[in-house]
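The protein record filed here.
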Amino acid sequence: MVFLTTKVMQRTALFVTFGGLVTCLITTFLPLWKTMNSDLNEVENWFSGLWHTCLYTEEVGIQCKAYDSIMGLPMDLQISRVLMSVSISTGGLALLAVFPGLEGVEVCAGQPGLKRRFLILGGVLSWVSGLSTLYAEAMFSGWFGGLALVIGGTLFFVAVCMGDFDQRPPSVPNRELLDGGTATPRGCTPLCKQQF
């Protein structure tokens, strides 16, 4: 029994891509992009994220404050916001684009070429999403999210190739054509040729 079918590969790619998208979404909103700790004052720890800054003290706990204005942010923080937004949006579009191309979904039933194009589009969008994911300081979730999106896109490409392999016509064994245009197996005796 074969467990690795096109349908299983598509579902695995969908699961890995969805996991990578959720991980990138969590990474975007965590405030652990930069840590600023002072050696002189070990009681306070500053954490900076893409959307807010947090202060951790032992007495009070964590207190977060959103940035006052977009224009006052450093350029690297603005670029990071844009890239992570692109990563999340292309990852979401990859999931939406791939859904009609999945086996078992009746959206494009009877149109295998269109289903194949949807899977390829989803794989490309997943790759773009994974490659535009940023990896912050000590944010291993960003690494895993980007890697999962790239692996999910690759698995969509593998599923397309598996589907192409499954749709190939069966190969014809080597046969010699006789004068009458009929095919006989190679090395056939005269008695065998009479049967054909």
Summary: The beta strands are 34-37, 44-48, 52-57, 61-66, 175-177, 183-185. Residues 7-32+73-165 form one domain.
